[in-house]
Write a structure and sequence with these properties.
alpha+beta; seven-stranded mixed sheet; two-stranded antiparallel sheet; 241 residues; Nucleoside triphosphate pyrophosphatase; Maf protein; ITPase-like_fam; elongated; hydrolase; 11 strands; nucleotide metabolism
């Protein structure tokens, strides 16, 4: 166990701070209830464990969207970290993520209610905003952390009042930052994006790859092969040559 230093902060990590053998099997814990984030990892060949952080996002404040999403990502990863009991024969990684939309100088998380979601879409349609997703990756045993923010510009379609009402009534906008998705019902209402689409979904795989590299790991170390029927998971990438 020990403290890790990063960007002027000190965080407690449950683990042996220092050298960790490359031969240990890897386990990735996703500190998020988002099924979209989990699907992104699975599509990239990674089968994560999921442990919801329980962080109250409404209590965290920041002046800039980038600062807010990164602080929330840190808090989520740390909250899950304190509930883990990592084994000596396994290298556990925890990744926390959070997304917010910067629009018209405001920071927009999840809408408070349908009326709030409706007002947002009436403002956003035909315009653009920037979706920021904070990522915090912690190597539990080594006591090391890597973190960064990915940002993508989103151009919204000029949708009608009826489309806004129908979309809000679906309930989807109430569950996501910025009141929209690109991988669900909201996809047709986004004209285009500038950047990584995974950022908008909530987890940037290229950024995750770079954060793993900071911890001396390869994203291929996390690849798994799921047998037909999903009965077994065979590690594919955790072999050093």
């Amino acid at each position: 166990m020990g403290w890790i230093e990063r960007a002027g902060r000190r965080d407690w990590v449950a683990g042996n701070v220092g050298f960790v053998s490359d031969s240990l099997p890897l386990r990735l814990v996703l500190a998020s209830a988002s099924p979209a984030r989990r699907k992104l990892l699975q599509a990239a060949g990674i089968e994560p464990d999921v442990l919801v952080s329980g962080v109250d996002e409404s209590l965290v404040m920041a002046d800039r969207a980038e600062e807010l999403c990164l602080e929330l990502a840190r808090l989520k990863a740390q909250a899950v970290l304190t509930r883990l009991s990592p084994a000596d024969d396994q290298r556990t990684l925890v990744v926390g993520c959070d997304s917010v939309l910067a629009f018209d100088g405001e920071i927009l998380g999840k809408p408070a209610d349908p009326a709030d979601a409706t007002r947002r879409w009436q403002r956003m349609r035909g315009r653009s905003g920037v979706l920021h997703s904070g990522h915090c990756l912690i190597d539990v045993i080594a006591g090391r952390r890597a973190e960064a923010v990915a940002s993508t510009t989103v151009h919204f379609a000029d949708i009608s009042d009826d489309e806004v009402a129908t979309y809000v009534a679906s309930g989807e906008p109430l569950a996501v930052a910025g009141a929209f998705t690109i991988d669900g019902l909201g996809g047709p209402f986004v004209e285009r994006i500038e950047g990584d689409p995974g950022t908008v979904v909530g987890l940037s795989m290229p950024l995750l790859r770079r954060l793993l590299a900071e911890l001396d790991l390869r994203i291929t170390d996390l690849w798994t092969k799921v047998a037909p029927g999903g009965q077994t998971v065979e590690p594919l990438g955790n072999v050093r040559s």
